[in-house]
Structure to design on (227 residues):
């Protein structure tokens, strides 16, 4: 079945450091890929998405490129801030139009940014 | 503003009790989902619905049920709570034409 694997956390960085959180997936066909973020005490919210190979999703300084050849969707940010501290989830869906939101999530990566 | 709300936010119950977690959304979304979040597992799909009177099982549906009598609500029922169902539960909704889901703030359930 479909699956998503993220790098093990937790990840701790200093402010202004470069961030990479690795995500690889297993799925047949051409899934859509997502990054969701969960701030402390809140539900998940969509950070960015890409729906076809070579697409780059971007939002709030974060970027991820859909690499079909390596089945990856790594999250990057050039200079992190304390406010980026959160849990980040990689996810995919390859359902029908009606089921396009039946997401499969990775296990999540907890990110802590120190001032 | 449209929103999605869950209740209760925190609940402690005993093994064998029936528990219902409420989920209400005001976006008029057709699609609604229940996930549970556990350390090391991320989010796992319990049940989902594509519209009124439609319900489907997810990957961890045993011991749970849902019903969809209107567009706005998808209550999740634990028929006989077990300690293994101690978790944080998230409800989500979305329009079928986009990939984005909107999540509630979660319901933390402890089964003693």
């Amino acid at each position: 079945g479909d699956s998503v694997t993220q790098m093990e956390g937790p990840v701790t960085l200093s402010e202004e450091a470069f961030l990479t959180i690795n995500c690889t997936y297993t799925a047949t066909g051409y899934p859509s890929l997502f990054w969701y973020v969960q701030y402390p005490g809140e539900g998940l919210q969509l950070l960015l998405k890409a729906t076809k190979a070579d697409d780059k999703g971007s939002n709030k300084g974060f970027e991820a490129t859909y690499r079909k050849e390596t089945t990856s969707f790594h999250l990057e940010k050039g200079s992190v801030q304390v406010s980026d501290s959160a849990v980040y989830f990689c996810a995919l869906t390859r359902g029908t139009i009606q089921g396009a939101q039946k997401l499969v999530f990775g296990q999540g990566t907890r990110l802590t940014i120190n001032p | 503003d449209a929103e999605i709300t869950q209740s209760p936010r925190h609940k402690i119950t005993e093994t064998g009790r029936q528990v219902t977690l409420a989920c209400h959304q005001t976006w008029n979304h057709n699609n609604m989902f229940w996930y549970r979040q556990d350390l090391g597992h991320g989010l796992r799909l319990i049940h989902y619905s594509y519209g009124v009177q439609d319900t489907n099982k997810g990957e961890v549906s045993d011991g749970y049920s849902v019903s969809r009598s209107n567009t706005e609500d998808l209550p999740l029922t634990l028929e006989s709570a077990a300690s293994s169902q101690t978790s944080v539960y998230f409800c989500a909704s979305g329009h079928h034409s986009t990939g984005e889901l909107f999540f509630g703030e979660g319901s933390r359930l402890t089964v003693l």
User: Anything to note?
Assistant: Chain A has a mean pLDDT of 91. The longest strand of chain A covers residues 86-93. The CA atoms of residues 22 and 74 of chain A lie 5 Å apart.
